Structures are given as structure tokens and as C-alpha cells.
Amino acid sequence: MAPLTIQQATKSFGGVQVLHGVTIDIDDGEFVVLVGPSGCGKSTLLRLIAGLEDITSGGILIDGKDVSRLHPKDRDIAMVFQSYALYPHMTVAENMGFSLRMRGAKSDEQRRKVGQAAGILDLDALLDRYPRQLSGGQRQRVAMGRAIVRDPKVFLFDEPLSNLDAKLRVQMRSEIRTLHKKLKTTIVYVTHDQIEAMTMADKIVVMRGGHVEQIGSPMTLYDAPANVFVAGFIGSPAMNLLKGRIGADAQSFDLDAGGALQFTSALDARPGQSVILGIRPEDVTLSDNGSPATVKLIEPTGADLHVNLDVAGSDITAVFHERLSLKEGQEVSLELPADCVHLFDAETETRLSA
Amino acid sequence: MVRWQRGLWLFFLPSFGLLALVLLWPLSYAVYLSFFDYYLGSGERTFIGLGNYVDLLTEARLWNSMRTTIIIAFGSVAVEFLVGFALALALYRLHGSAKVFSVLLFLPHIVTPVVAALFLKWMLASNWGFVDATLLTFNIEPPDWLGDPVWAKVSVILADAWVFTPLVMMVLYAALQGLDTSLLEAAQIDGASSWNTLRHVIVPALIPAIIFVISIRLMDVFRFFDLIYVLTGGGPGTATETITIYTYQLGFRMLEVGKASALGVITLIVVAMLLLTINRGLNKAYRGGDR
Amino acid sequence: MSAQSYPGRRRTTWVIFIALCVFTFINLTPLIWAVLTSLKDPRDAFTIPPTIIFEPTLKYHIEVWTENDFVFYLMNSLIISAGTVFISVPAGSLAAYALSRIPRRSAGPILSALFTIRMFPHMLLAIPFFVMGTFLNMIDTYPLLILALVAINQPFTIWLMHGFFLEIPRDLDEAAAIDGCSNWQAFRIVILPLARPGMTVAALFSLLLSYNEFLFALILTGTDTKTLPVAIASFGGEDISSWSLSAAGAIGIMLPIVLVMLLLQRHLVRGLTAGAVKG
Predict the structure, then answer these.
(1) Each residue of A117-126: b (16+ CB within 10 Å) or e?
(2) CA-based nearest distance C156→chain B, Å
(3) For strand A274-279 and strand A260-262, is the pairing parallel, antiparallel, or unpaired?
(4) Which among B111, B122, B159 has a CA at the least distance from the CA of C36?
(5) Distance (Å, rounded) from C-alpha B263 to C-alpha B266?
(6) Range C161-181 average pLDDT
(7) What is the full per-residue pLDDT of chain A (354 aa) written as tens digits?
(8) Would you list the DSSP string of A114-134?
(9) Going from the N-terminus, what domains does chain C have, and what CATH number goes with each?
(10) Do B4 and A69 touch (CB under 8 A)?
(11) Is there a contact between C178 and A71 if contact means CB atoms under 8 Å apart?
């Protein structure tokens, strides 16, 4: 258990820079999720922390000590690989005890610690099996068992759930969360799945193109995305983003695509300012005196109703929790509450209002 | 290399040490020797610069052996490729019984080359060999397979083909099995004839394997030694004397090791240029031909 | 291709089948003829037309294995082949492993260089070996031929093993590093056990290559170390009166090969594509 600090970390492969000065502070015992589209550098960052790649410049501090020049085995970290990377010729017990064995632990100590970890992860019955005899979920658990046996300062998870089916993924999500509550070890967890990030993290780091876009708690990212990218990345279905200009009365919004949206109260921006206006599908409601819209497509998910609407030539998605009897082609009127609107500068794409 | 992997460089030491000792050093020594007039019998050695090269390039025997090499090389590789490809396609088509055939057809290739040459020699030996004995039974006067300059070349080509067609067949058959069957099905649905499927779907997909197999066969055929040595010894006269056999004669019969080294270097250059040309040509034909 | 059996297609399949049968038979006649010859008494061996039906005799096979120097040459062959394998495969495997783990831009040129070495005419290597061997007084000793065979074997072994190591995920090396292994420990404890089948295949192929090798054996051996191919080539070529005996010897040479081939079956194509059995 230890705090982890990443200071101005950069990484280049040959001439290509994949990380541009990333700085992240992670508290002791925090569960941090690195999330972003593929190629954003999140896995590279994780591998830098593990020591599997050399840092080009900057530092990595675990428990206040710069480890960025150390061999992976000397960093006191453990890692769960996407492929699990279990040793095929060793039993579950041998796999889990391997790091202890390499560190010269006595065999009864190995057995005790493996037994403990197996107990936590419900693996007791499988200790003598080989990885090929296990299901995907069981392998996943062994990979975690291998990591926790050593009680390292930091756990690293590299997209650990991406090889599991949807149902198992949901189950493992909560198991990892429970495990973290129990062990209270600092975790850095990489995923491309924003739902995993939202449900598991104490703190999310959104990355794109080798830069950190925003760091914050899940709800901060959801409620106050720092820029258009984060706004579009977090939340499902994605936030509606519309380009346009604030109207003269600040209560309307002239869309670049043509037409205008009406709001009941003033928007928090200069009249005439060019902005990108974002509104989450779940904040859109139906009312009698809003902007006119046409229903284009209805997708019931069971619990919710996803509705695709045409508003003055622009597409807007809305999510309704109640069961509405809408028909495709129907004319409705939408209310877009001004206090739920996110405004971003059209040029810099950064958030305007607080 | 990543810091934690730096220890891997040590893994190269034994192998590269060996290669330097038994490959690079001798090869450089051979190149060095090629600049000397060096008769191993007397041990006398005089530096003559490019003398050996000039000698070789101006003598008829070299050009004769070069021509022979090229005839035999292209003859046998052509036979091997055509027959090997046809066999591979036939095996691919048969799938059920292909396994048995592939094993039987492969047998000649697992025979030690020297032994294969002996087998063929016993087949082709005049009068009592299987071929002659059979032909004589029907009162057909057989040609002198190994004693006539033209037939000797043909025999050598067929011998090489007998041993190496199975290799070509196996490599191409393996490549065929790796083909995406949906490609072939799509071609069938599009109404392509078998010939068109072969020409426009199968051959382009096999180009890498074809280049590979032709390249390694050409490389090998240029150092092709065992078969000719046992079958004809380069004869009659110098009718089947390839560059390799000529080098052998120079180096180990006449002990002119300097000149023989020069010939080895020339061979190397020829092979390298040939392979380069073939790779370029095939690549171009493939890119230009199909569009 | 699925074999739907509409009439035209089925007919072509039959034509192909019969053509293959005929071709296979013709293709195998030299082998069959050699086997028959080895079982013939001279009075059956020299006849026109060739005899197919005769009283077979195992006399010559027995003679080969008991009376002649065949066993001595076989031992030479085995010692030299085994020596080559014991040097070539471990060294080649280490290099191949490192090659499969370093970045591709470093590994690529090394692999191409190794492939280029394949292109070298063996004659160009045989000459300096012969000259140096003469100076060092090592002609007709095991080590000289073994070293020469290692030289032609090593690039092939590295290529073959490289393919096997590439199939072992790098994640395992990384997991091992995090678990506390040095590069050597990761190789020995984690990777090597997984590479063992591949090493067996490489060893068997190298064994074949060395066992079949003729040029270097011809030049670098003498009465003490002569290998089977050299012996049979000098013995079986000329004198037709010893045909039956030579044929029995030739078939004797094949026995170890057939054995190895049976073990190799599944990996045959792979070995071939890595550089062919006959280098």
C-alpha cells in the first residue's frame, strides 16, 4: 500500500511520441482507472509504471521513491494481464506462489499465503489444476490471486475483463471492487470501457492521444466534463453535442446546421458567442412548450426508451425512463433544461461554465 | 532495448560466437585466399590480386559450367515447380485420400541425397538398369542415359526433380491449406471457371509461398552437389559439370584453392543477383498481372 | 473447397485420383527397385526382362549389418550428427529466444542476415575449412566436421526455433519479470519448458541434416571418421556385382531417417519452410 505519483512522464517509440508529459497523483489505497480510446497511451502508461517499458523522461514515484529506473521485480508491484499470462506448465498453486518462490520464500510460507489468497478468491478447490483446465473466469481469478499473494504496494490491471463474456464481466467488476475494499491496496486499472471506469473507480483519468484530458471522480466527470472529448466519452448513450451560437436573449441557441433551440431560462454565456452545446440524453424531457422535434427512431432497451429525434435538422438522442407511447414520425416538443446544459468553447472545446 | 530485457544480449553470445568462428572467419579467409595463386600441394602462395578472377572469367570452362548450371537449374526448378504445383492442387482437391498420397509422394525427399542418386543410377545403368532392361524387353534400343551429353543433362534434371518435387509440393500444399476457403467459395458463387479461379484467386494468394519455394530451390540448385557427383561426376567429359562441380574439381582435385575460392565468390555473386532479379520480377508480375 | 458431388465434379475427382495413383507408382519405382534389388541374388539381379518374382533373400541385409564396416560408418555418422545437434541446438535456441524478444526493428536485420547466409555456396565454406583443417592437422577428425556442420546448421536452427519462440506469448516473460525473474530465470523456468517440443523438432531436423550431409563429409573425413553417405557413395557407385549389397546398405541408411521422420510427421512442413531438410 503506497501512494503513486507520475511526474511529467513522456514516452517515445523511435520518433513517435505516445505520452506527452503525463502527471497523475494517486493516493494510498485509491482505485484509479485509466480510460480512453485505443491508442491513447493508457496501456503504455501502465507498462511504464510496471517497468515493462522504459520511461523517456519524467519520474514514477511509489511511496515517495523514484522507481522509474528499477527492474520490474524491484518495484514491488503486481500486474494482472489482459491475457492473464498464467504459466501453462504450472498448477494454479504454483502459478500463485511463483513470485514468492522467486523471492526465496520458504515453502510453508508459500503454501500459507497461497492458501490465504485462494480463500479470498474462492480458488481452494482448483489449486492442483492447470490453467488449461480452467474456465475464463477462473483463469481471471487465478491471475488476480497471483497478484495479491505478494501483497505488493500497487496493483496494475491491464484490461483484465476484456476476454470475458458480458455477464461474467459484470460479476467480476463487483468482485474486483469488493477485493479492493478488503485489501485497500492502490490500484491502477486500464480499460477502454467507460462503464467499467464509472462503476469501479475512485478516480478516473481520461486520456487521449498521449495527453490527460481530465482527472476526477466518476460523478465529477459526468457532471462537469472538462472538454468536449470527455463529455462525449463518458456516459451512455453519449451526450448530444450541437454546434451553434448563443441567441441575442441568451435563451435561444442558433444551430450552425440551421434552426434554433428554445430554453426556458438564460444560458450561462455571452449572447452571440460561438459554442458547442452539450446535453445528456437523460436530461432531455418532453413538454408542451419546448423546441419542436420529430421522432425518428425508437429503441426500447426494456428499462429505458432511447429515442432518436430530429430537432431543426440536428440529431438529438433522448432517454426516457417512463414508458411513453411514441411513434416514429410523431411530432413532439422537447424541453432542454438550461441548468443541465454543458457549454464548451467552439474553438478550444474546453468547458465554459463552471 | 527495454532496460529489464538488456540481459538478452548475452543470449546471443554462444550462437554468434560460433557463427563468427565457423562461418564468418572461414568465409573471409576464403575471400582472402581468392586473391592468391595458391597450390595446396606445394604450399606456395603468391598474391596476384584479381588474377584468379581474370583467369576464370576468360576461360571457356567457366562459361561452359555456368551454362550447364543455368540449364540444369532452370530445367529442374521448372519441372519441380510445375509438377509440384499440379500435385499440390490435386492433393488439395482430393482432401480425403490426400494424406496417404502426400506421404507416398514425399518418400523420395526423405531419402539421403547420395542414396537417392544411387537408386537412380541403378535405374538408369546401361543394360542391367531397370529402365534399360524394361526397354530391351520390348526391343527398344535405349539411349545412353548417363553417357550421352544431352541425355546426361536430362537425367540430372530428372534426378533433381525426383528428389525435390516433393518439397515444392509440400510447401505449396501447405500454403493451399492455409487459403481462406471463403475466397474460393466467393469465386465459385461469382461463376468463375476452375481455370479462372486458379489464375485470379489461388495463384495470387500463393505468391509469397511460390516466391519462397522458387528462391530456396534456386539457391540450393546452385550448390547442388551430391546428386551430380554420384550420378555422373560431371561427365561425360564436362557435359554435366556445374559451377559447384567445377569448384570441387579445382579445389579438391587440382588443389588450386586460391582459384577455387575465387570461383566460390563468383558463384555467390551470381546467386545473389539471380535471386534479386527473380524476386523483383515475380513481385512485379504479380502486382502488374492481376490488375 | 467442399466437395459437392454433382456428376461432372465427381468425374474430375476420379480422373485426378487415378492420375495420382499412376504418378505415385512411377515415382516410387526407384525405391521399389532398390528394395527388390537388395533382396535379390545376382542371378535374379541381372536379367532382361527385369525379374519381379523371385526368391527373396535377406543374405545381403544380414551381411551389411554384421560383416562389413557399415556399423562403423553408422557410428561415425551418429557421433558427428549428435555432436552437431548438441552444439547447434542449445546455442541456436538461446539466440532464437533473444531474437523473438527484442524489438522487431533490431531482430529483422539479424534474421535477414541469417537468411542470406543460407545463400552462400557450401563450396565457398568447404575450401577454407579444408585449408585450415590441413594446417591444423584436423582433417579426418570428428571436431572439424562437426564444426563445419554447425556452421551450415546454425542459421537454420535459429530460424526454426525463432518461429517456435514467437508462439510463446511475451506476456509470460513480462509476468515472470514482475514475479521476480531475471532474463535467464525467465528463460529457464518459464519459457524453456514450453519450448521443449520445438527444441525436439529442431534437434531432429538438425540430426537429419547432419546425417545426410555429403560435401563436407566427403572433403573433411578420411578412413577414421568416414560417414555413411560418403562410404556408400564410394562403394555402391561403380561395381555392379555388388549391387545387392549396396542396395541393402542404402536401405540400412534409411532406417534411422524413417524413424526420425515418423517422429517428425506433424512438424514436417514447418521444418521445410524454415529451410528445407537438405541444406
Answers:
(1) bbebbebeeb
(2) 12
(3) unpaired
(4) B122
(5) 5
(6) 92
(7) 689 999 999 999 888 999 999 999 999 999 999 999 988 999 999 999 999 999 999 999 999 999 999 999 999 999 999 999 999 999 999 999 999 999 988 999 999 999 999 999 999 999 999 999 999 889 999 999 999 998 899 999 999 998 889 898 999 999 999 999 999 999 999 999 999 999 999 999 999 999 999 999 999 999 999 999 999 999 889 999 999 999 888 888 888 888 888 888 888 888 888 999 999 999 998 888 788 899 999 999 888 999 999 988 888 999 998 888 888 888 998 888 888 899 999 999 999 865
(8) HHHHHHHHT-GGGTTS-GGGS
(9) 7-59 (no CATH), 62-273 (1.10.3720.10)
(10) no
(11) no
Interatomic CA distance for residues A68 and A79, integer angstroms: 16
Residue C102 in contact with residue C232, Cβ under 8 Å? no
Would the CB atoms of B3 and A51 count as touching at under 8 Å?
A: yes
Q: Cα–Cα distances in Å, from C209 out to A149, C140, C206, C279?
A: 48, 20, 5, 7
Task: Tell the burial category of B99 from Cβ atoms under 10 Å away from its Cβ (0-12, 13-18, 19+).
Answer: exposed
Residue A292 C-alpha cell reads as 419542436
Residue type, C276: A
Record the cell numbers describing residue C103, joined without a space.
Answer: 524489438
What distance in Å separates the CA atoms of residue B261 and residue B263, rounded to the nearest whole number? Answer: 5
Residue C153 φ/ψ region, left for φ over 0, alpha for ψ in the -120 to 50 degree band, beta for the rest: alpha
Cell of B126: 546401361
For residue B163, which residues of chain C lie inside 8 Å, CB to CB?
278
CB of C250 less than 8 A from some CB of B:
yes
Pinpoint the alpha helices (H) of C69-121: 70-101, 104-119
d(CA C179, CA A102): 7
Question: Distance between CA A283 and CA A290 in Å, rounded?
Answer: 14
Q: Which domains does chain B have, with CATH numbers?
A: 67-289 (1.10.3720.10)
Residues B194-246: pLDDT tens digits?
A: 888 888 888 888 888 888 888 888 878 877 888 889 888 887 888 889 989 99
The span from the CA of C130 to the CA of C265, in Å, is: 36
C271 touches B at CB < 8 Å: no
- Tell me the nearest-neighbour CA distance from C105 into chain A, angstroms: 10
A4-233 maps to CATH 3.40.50.300: yes
- Residues C122, C123, C125, CA angle at the centre, nearest 5°? 70
| Chain B residue numbers touching C23 (CB-CB < 8 A) | 87, 105
Contact list in A for residue B6 (CB cut-off 8 A) is: none
- What pairs with residue A206 in β-bridges? A35, A214
What stretches of B7-112 show up as alpha helix (H) in DSSP? 9-19, 25-33, 51-58, 60-94, 98-110
Compute how many other C-beta atoms are within 10 angstroms of the C-beta atom of residue A84.
22
Distances (CA, A) of A105 to A5, A98, A112, C177, C275: 30, 10, 11, 17, 46
Give me the residue spans of the domains in chain A: 4-233, 240-345
Instruction: Report the C-alpha gap between B11 and B22 in whole angstroms.
Output: 18
Q: Which residues of chain C neighbour B87 with C-beta distances below 8 Å?
A: 20, 23
Enclosing H/E stretch for A306: strand A305-311
**pLDDT beyond 50 at C278:** no
> Cell triple for residue A209?
492521444
C-alpha grid cell for residue B15?
550462437
C172 touches chain A (CB under 8 A): yes
Strand A314-320 relative to strand A305-311, pairing = antiparallel
Under DSSP, the state recorded for B43 is T
Domain A240-345: which CATH class?
A: mainly beta
How far apart are alpha carbons A201 and A33 in whole angstroms?
6
Q: Is A213 helix (H, G, I), strand (E, B) or coil?
A: strand
